[in-house]
Amino acid sequence: MKKLFFLAGILMIFNLSAQVLHPAKWEVSLSEKAPKKGEEVNVIFDVKIDDDWYLYSSDFDPDLGPMVTEFTFEEDPSYELIGEVKPINPSKKYDSLIWGGEYTYFKHTGQFIQKVKILDAKYQIKGSYTYQVCSDVDGKCIPFDEDFELTSGGSKSGATDLPITNTEDKGLLKQRDSNSPYSLLSFMLVAFLAGLAALLTPCVFPMIPMTVTYFTGKDKNKKGRYVNSLFYGFSIVLIYSLIGAVLAPFMGPEMANDLATGWLPNLIFFVVFLVFALSFFGLFEITLPHKFVNNVDAMGDKGGLIGVFFMALTLVLVSFSCTGPIVGSILVESAGGLALKPVLGMLAFSAAFAIPFTLFALFPNWLNSLPKSGGWLNSVKVVLGFVELALALKFLSIADQAYHWHLLDREIYLAFWIVIFTLMGFYLLGKIKLPGDSELKQVSVSRLILSIITFTFVVYLIPGMFGAPLKAMAGYLPPMSTHDFDIPGHIRTSGGSANAVSLIETCEEPLYDRFLEWPHGLEGYFDYEQALACAKSVGKPIFVDFTGHGCVNCREMEARVWSEPEVLKRLNNDFVLLALYVDDKTELPENKWYTSSYDQKVKKTIGKQNADFQITRFQNNAQPFYVVLSPEGELLVEPQAYDLNVNNFVAFLEKGKQAYN
To answer: pTM for the complete prediction?
Structure first.
């Protein structure tokens, strides 16, 4: 049986060998080919990055999580450093879901510059750089440690070392996904629904019969009415699309960095959304100058298609007080995407907005089926106001997290949302009245259903105040790290686990547990030899977690999969747990150093030794990477990577347990 497992392990290693990647190529040079003694020159680090990969820069907080690119120069009397290494024009990204902060990165190409002063014509500039590259496709991130050397006789760089960590960065995948066809289609669907919602506002809905009357009264023959009606709808779409086209150059990817990280634009959008919400509540109306609107309306009296176009423009201007906030919200949401995204958003919105006007103009008899105007139109506007108010907090939260103001920590943010949607539910039931509302003698079925949905959402949010993860809302809420009142976390931390008792009472005390830890109160080892000894002692297989401090997909697996009772029960009871952090920089005693058979370099730290073990044993450099071994160190089942399907992970653990038995 052991021979079969050994054979299976060899085959698995062979199949995994293609997973060792190196997506970045470096070139190190001097700004002057033959610098003279006393001359100041730049050491230039140029890097070419494969398509669909990005590389973390060096100018963000290293405590944030992702691995910062670092440069080390060996001391030498032939030169001296002037200042620090500077990255040249990196892109910026704010990740609120996992890291809760801003980081910088490069795509396709990158450059770093270090100024030095040459003290000897026979100079020797040596050192190394550690960096991390990540995939846009599957989130896989792989850091490396490479050497460089620049001398008066030549240079060399890019000596590939073993990867020392591997994260899975979902803030930039989401960033790429925001421009994928699927996400663009979702965005356009939301914009289309927003156009339908705009029709149900008091500024727009009464305009439908007025428009139909205009066309039926002006064009007695059907052919003329059909042509004018279709051109009227086309004109509405054209006007809104032109608005998107005019704004598109200012809303593309170049603006994304400022919107994602800058406190000023996010505060501006917070104020704008707040103003929109107050306008919908009836505090004031956002209107265009009456003289301008009247002049456009007068031009609509001209005959022919020109008059029809100005009729459409008049509709757009007159309805601005209700559609302006909705259009503004769509344009804000389109910022930072493809250059065409604002145009596509306006195209979808205007299509939904124009289709009813066109259809009713073509078939005026349908007007009899429309409900009458009334207070319900104002109710639609007020409900949109509540939604705008909730969305306004998102922009304030981004600025708050980026600059650590701690004004909107997770529980405060949730408290606002709970209050906002509770008030919205009571409003739908007629318990709250605002300016413009008519007397509500009875609650309609539609209002009752909407209030049930709203209160259900509120009930879902309430456990989040006490530390529930609220996975469905993860992208809209501040990270859990800002939450002060995490009851489940405290219970897991203080409660311990069944596995903890067996480890402490039966096996050795884990090494490195002062600065390394397991989530959810689990207890395990951080040293391979210790885990083997314990597994032999207690007669259990070993669950190996190749992880990293900066591994975002590791954290996501722990939060979404490991937290499930079926997974926790198996990890607690059926395995000896071993976490091998591949990015830990703790240096080991010299007697534990060794030279790797993979790259012939001396491995001095916990992280480099763990990474070396993963790549030499399993020919893989991705995290998270889960392995089940026998107490003798034999591979029992095919390793598992990132997969948020809980059933798949439970099946993986069960296969490992059965293979051992």
So the answer is: 0.49
